[in-house]
Amino acid sequence: MKKTNRTTTRRLGAGKKRPIKKRILKPKFSGVILYQGPSLLDGAPIVVILTFSTDNAKTGDMLQTWILRADMPPTVAIKSGDDSSVCGACIHRHHSGGACYVVAGHAPLSIWGCFSRGGYPVFNPEKHAHLITGRAVRLGAYGDPAAAPFKTWENITALATHWTGYTHQAAHKNFDPRIAGLCMVSADSPRQALKYQNKGFRTFRVAMEGDGLLDSEIECLNTTTGVECITCGLCDGARRDADSIAIEAHGSRANRFKTSRADLIPALAIA
Ligand code: SF4
Questions:
Q1: Less Cβ crowding at N or C end of the chain, within 10 Å?
Q2: How far, in Å, is the centroid of ligand 1 from the Cα of 46?
Q3: Domain ranges of the chain
């Protein structure tokens, strides 16, 4: 056959094998059940649900976990005081006249509603791990992580890139100290913060104006720099060797936060 001088245009790299991109299909459900069983605080039925998306401006795009009574809506539990199964004796519970900033009638209620209609599958590592791998997770968007077994959190944090969490149960008789390895221990006064820090915990303290900072504390970076928790990640418990955190009371119920005068420590001890 006669050769011609015709040039052909071939696409660059046409012969190369392209890496196959694995598409992560969007799940048909908006969350998974991580735990359903008795509360470690009082034995009542609870459920822990992890949801994939949030519009929380402070945390940024973190997976969120919700610790709820399984047998009643959170709004009912808060009114009757049955929220103690998921919040223990936290002084910020509305039932005790406290100032908890979580609006139970919004996300917690809608998540409980979806759960009660069977909208969330039980977490199955083989099917669902890829939805958590590479993402950051917030332990306890509502409810206290100490209400669920440590294993629940250990499994999820092992998959996540990083996490934040808070527990108010350090003084509870059933408290599993391993929870403090993953979560900040909430303190309600400088004196209480020092007490917990002396036990090797890192604390997260909601401070009133004028409380001051302890030498062992820094102010929440969201307050000082505007960074989101997903970027900061400092509130991940005692496994990290870092300062404790304090934040000034905020939200519509801020004026209901109090540091008892007896719990204030002498001004000299405060930076
Ligand atoms: S210190 Fe960082 S992780 Fe903790 S609450 Fe503030 S911004 Fe979030």
A1: N
A2: 27
A3: 31-263
